[in-house]
Amino acid sequence: MAQREKLTEKLVKAADPRAGIYQVFDEDVRGFSLRIFSSGSRHFTLDYRVKGRQRRFTIGRWPEWTVTAAREQAKTLRRVIDDGGDPLGEREAGMAAPRIPDLIDRYIETHTPNLAPTNRADQISMLRKLVQPVWKHKLVEDITLDDVDRLLSDVAKGRARPSKTKPNNRARKLQGSKPTPIRANRMGEVLRKMFSLAVQWKLRADNPAMGFHRRIETERERYLSMDEIDRLAKALGTADDQRAASIIRMCMLTGARLGEARCARFEQFNLEFATWSKPATTTKQRKVHRLPISPDVAAIVRQRQTAVHPGCPWLFPGDVPGQPVKEIRRFWRQIQTEAGIAGVRIHDLRHTFASLLVSGGASLEMIGKLLGHSQMRTTQRYAHMMDSPLRDGVNAVAEMMKPQLRIVQGGR
User: What is the pLDDT averaged over residues 126-145?
Assistant: First the structure.
C-alpha cells in the first residue's frame, strides 16, 4: 500500500533517507509524490497512466522547487493528462527534436563540401562563431524571423577589433567597432540556405530567414587612371620580387582574380592558340573558364618557364615545396607606396581591366565572358560606363546644331 500524506515543507525536510528509494504520495493531488533517494536527494514527481502504460514525470528537485510550486505544477499536468495528453511523451519528443547545433552540423557535412574552399571555411566560421553561440541549443522549429533579424542586426553593428582583451599595440587599442552590413547580408544568405534545407529535410515547415532584412550595400568602384596604370607598371618593372610582380601583371592584363593568377599552372595555357583554361577548382563560379590571352600574357608564361625549375607545375611556385605562392600582401603594400596608389586593392585591377574593355567598345556580354561571370547582373555594374561613347555622340550632334554667332558692327 503506497504511503499517502499531506506533503508539506516540514515533512519533506524531515524525510529520512533509507537504503534504496521510496515515495510519499500526496493526499490532495492524485499521483503527485515525493521521491527520497538514499543519497538524501528529494524529487517531486507525478505518476500517471496513458494508454495502459505507467508513466512518471519528474517535476523538479527540492529545495529548488517548493512543495507549493510543485503541487501547482502537478495540478496543471494532471489537467493535461485528463484531456488525453502525455506530458512525459511531449518532453521526450522535445528532447529528441533537432536543435540548432544538429542543423549546423548537418549543413556543414552535407552542403559545404560542394563549395569553394574559401567560401566553405567562411560559412563554417560564421555558423560556429556567430550563430551557434547566440542560438545555443534552441530547437530548430523555434527560430523565428525576429530571431534572425536580431542576430543579423548585431552582426551589422560589427564588433571591436581585435577580439583580444589586451591588444599588443596602441593602434589596435584605438580601433573600435566597425559596422559590417555586408557581413550581415552574407550571413542572412547562409541562414536562408540552411533553413531551406531544413524544410527539405522536414525539420520544420517554413523558412524563417526567407524574408530577412537586407542591408544596403555600396559597391566599391575604384578604377585606375592611365597615369596610375603607368606608375604601377614602372613600380612593377623595378621591383626586386619579379615573381610577385608577374602575378600582379597577370591580374591587370587578364582581369583574373588574385587566387586564379596565384594558382595558375603551365598546363592551363595553350600558347599556340593564346588561351588560358582556368579549371573549376580555382574559379569562383566553380566552372571551367577559357579565355584568350594577349601576347604580353604569353610572354609572362614563357618567362616563367625559364625561371621555374623543370617539372614544377606552378607558374608561381611558393616557398613551401609543391605549393604555389600563398601571400603577396606585403609586396602589394610596397608597390602601393612606390606607385602612389594608396587604397587600391588588387581586386580593383579587375575592375580597371573591365573599364578599359568598355572604353575600347566591348559589349557587356563580352566583358562578362572575359571576367568569367556566371550571371549577367554581375556584369551590369559596368553598364553605366557604356554611357561615355553615347554621350560623346550626343555632344557631337549638339555641337553641329549650335546657332552660328554673327558679328554685329556699329550696334546693328
Answer: 92
Domains in the chain: boundaries: 4-96, 100-200, 226-394
- Whole-number Å distance between alpha carbons of 341 and 233: 12
Q: Cell match 613551401: residue? A: 320
- Cα 291 to chain centroid distance, Å, stands at 30
347 and 258 in contact (C-beta within 8 Å)? Answer: yes
Q: What are phi and psi of 100, to 5 degrees?
A: -55, -45
pTM above 0.85, yes or no: no
| Residue tagged 596608389 (cell numbers) | 341
Cell of 235: 613600380
Task: Name the nearest CA neighbour of 1 among 22, 20, 21.
Answer: 22
pLDDT digits (tens, 9 = 90+) for 93-118: 655 678 899 999 999 999 998 887 88
CATH number of 4-96: 3.30.160.390
- 245 contacts: CB under 8 Å, gap ≥ 6: 236, 237, 239, 331, 335
- DSSP label at 58? E
Q: Give the three-state DSSP class for 26.
A: strand
Each residue of 314-360: pLDDT tens digit? 999 998 888 999 889 999 999 999 999 998 999 889 888 888 887 77
What architecture does CATH give domain 226-394?
Orthogonal Bundle (1.10)
